[in-house]
Design a protein that fits this description.
The protein is built from 21 helices and 18 strands. A hairpin with a 4-residue loop joins β14 and β15. The strands form 6 sheets. A 6-stranded mixed sheet has the order 2-1-4-3-5-17. The protein has a 4-stranded mixed sheet with strand order 9-12-8-13, with helices on both faces. Strands 6-7 form a two-stranded antiparallel sheet. The N terminus is likely disordered. The protein is an alpha/beta fold and 510 residues long.
Length: 510
């Protein structure tokens, strides 16, 4: 059907920061929301329009606006208009989101039907989540989800999270500068090296350092080499993992990246991790002013706004650069994370040399969603998640950097999708090739997804920050982290953590 409504409906959006809002009922076409057309699928607009949830209420908790929170509110409004349901959306800052979900779980409250949260919390949340019913597993949207993100949604072989995002780290760089004959000549004359896209982290630091402190793009403002997430309390640990993975994830060594699965001995202070941290500390020379305290938002707008030559993290900085009317649109490119020519072999206790740099793609924690096992409206809740991620909504959300929804379906790795959004073919091809090859890599790294993961990540972030600030050497900092991790393992229970960590190792070793 063309219209979004044929039933009475209402939606209330609650936010810890925005107060109470009420959306008036009005007839609306889906094009009013930027949706070009109702693509066919199990939970298309027309399919959900046939549902009648008049008189029922759906309670949703999600992240603060805009990242994930904004598309949640948008699709909640649409769902309400289609089905007649009352939809209450609560927006919570990231620092409070875990506890706002966990406390009702622990106290047995039926506070929320639908949950949007960081997927690495599955180790704590899994026993409170409702398994995804077979009908939804067999939906058109779900069948298109890549194997890796279907894996992220599962716990002990059962799907309990609903995929609606796909996150990974990769390299972004200014292709116009790397392809400039003038810049190639200058770099060669001053360094003796050819200017090329870095294949190792050592090369990344060298190139970034050279391109720091002068106006290399002619806009009248100083440019810098690298924008990185270096703020302790804002996902610094993910940036560190990206840098360390190539040195610590040996392709011939199985059985754990963060821990030895058999003994649950922390590996965080082994030489590969130490090398990655040393290079992270060194990289600060190429940061923009204030870059040592950059959070994710700063990184997005530094690279996406043209201030820096290179960056690596989630898709957001790349999508920001590719926004319509951005001055650097179609002047950027994507590539795999830099690798390492030497990789630590924890079995032999030696560094192994690689003629072709070892790559370890990092499938980072991403946003996920689920239905509470305590919900009295499970069918409506799963209908909402199926609708949230339907083919039309997913294609729409991918185009908006601030939404935080990144490719997670096989159909998203189609260059035609992106050229249809105005991307040059070369840019689209680099993006699709980089992301799709990560899906097939045999040497991937996934986040630690175990009970108490927040304690482990906080400890890691504190240690990395101590090294970045010069308070400790990289080895000293990570020795302290390893000691703290051992205490956390003893406190939570080695067997419990091993059982949970086996889910991560299974993804990495598959």
């Amino acid at each position: 059907m063309n219209t979004l409504i044929k039933k009475n409906c209402s939606i209330v959006v609650l936010s810890t920061s925005l107060g109470l809002l009420s959306t008036a009922v009005h007839a609306a076409n889906y094009t009013d929301y930027g949706i070009n057309k109702d693509l066919p699928g199990t939970c298309s607009y027309s399919a959900i329009d046939s549902k009648d949830y008049t008189g029922k209420k759906l309670n949703i908790i999600t992240h603060a606006i805009p990242v994930i929170g904004e598309p949640t509110a948008l699709h909640a409004e649409q769902f309400s208009k289609l089905t007649g349901a009352e939809v209450n959306v609560v927006h919570v800052p990231f620092g409070d989101l875990f506890q706002r979900i966990m406390i009702p779980f622990q106290s047995g409250q039926n506070a929320y039907d639908v949950l949007f949260y960081a997927s690495l919390w599955i180790g704590d949340f899994n026993r409170f989540l409702s398994p995804v019913p077979e009908d939804y597993i067999n939906s058109t949207g779900m069948k298109d989800v890549t194997d890796s993100f279907r894996g992220v949604a599962q716990w002990n072989g059962q799907m309990i999270q609903y995929p609606m995002d796909g996150d990974r780290h990769y390299l972004k760089y200014r292709s116009d500068i790397f392809e400039s004959d003038e810049m190639k000549a200058k770099y060669k004359a001053n360094t003796g090296n050819e200017l090329k896209v870095p294949s190792t982290w050592e090369e990344y630091n060298q190139v970034a350092n050279y391109f720091s402190g002068f106006d290399w793009d002619g806009d009248g403002e100083l440019n810098y080499g690298s924008a990185e997430v270096a703020k302790r309390d804002d996902l610094m640990f993910s940036a560190f993992i990206s840098r360390a993975a190539a040195y610590a994830k040996h392709p011939a060594v199985k059985g754990g990246f963060f821990f030895d699965l058999e003994t649950m001995t922390p590996l965080i202070n082994t030489p590969g991790f130490v090398r990655g941290l040393e290079l992270f500390v060194e990289a600060q020379q190429a940061f923009p002013p204030g870059g040592t305290n950059f959070g994710l938002g700063d990184e997005i707008f530094s690279f996406g706004g043209g201030q820096t030559l290179m960056s690596y993290s989630w898709d957001d900085a790349f999508i920001q650069a590719q926004q319509e009317n951005n001055r650097i649109r179609n002047k950027v490119s994507a590539a795999p994370l830099p690798g390492a020519s030497e990789v630590w072999n924890r079995v032999t206790g030696k560094w192994d040399k690689f003629e072709t740099p070892n790559r370890a793609p990092y499938m980072t924690w991403g946003w996920s969603s689920a239905v509470s096992n305590a919900s009295k409206e499970k069918e409506m809740a799963f209908d909402f998640l199926c609708f949230f991620s339907n083919e039309s909504n997913a294609e729409h959300d991918l185009q908006i950097g601030r939404f935080g929804v990144n490719p997670y379906r096989n159909s998203h790795f189609n260059s035609d999708l992106w050229t249809g959004m105005g991307w040059d073919p070369e840019v689209a091809n680099s993006y699709v090739k980089t992301l799709s090859e990560m899906e097939t890599s045999p040497n991937r790294v996934y986040d630690l997804r175990v009970p108490g993961v927040g304690q482990f990540m906080s400890s890691m972030a504190n240690g990395v920050a101590a090294a970045m600030s010069g308070q400790k050497s990289a080895q000293e900092a990570l020795d302290q982290v390893a000691a703290e991790w051992t205490e956390i393992v003893d406190r939570i229970g080695k067997d419990r953590l091993r059982d949970a960590y086996a889910n991560v190792v299974a993804l990495e070793d598959a």
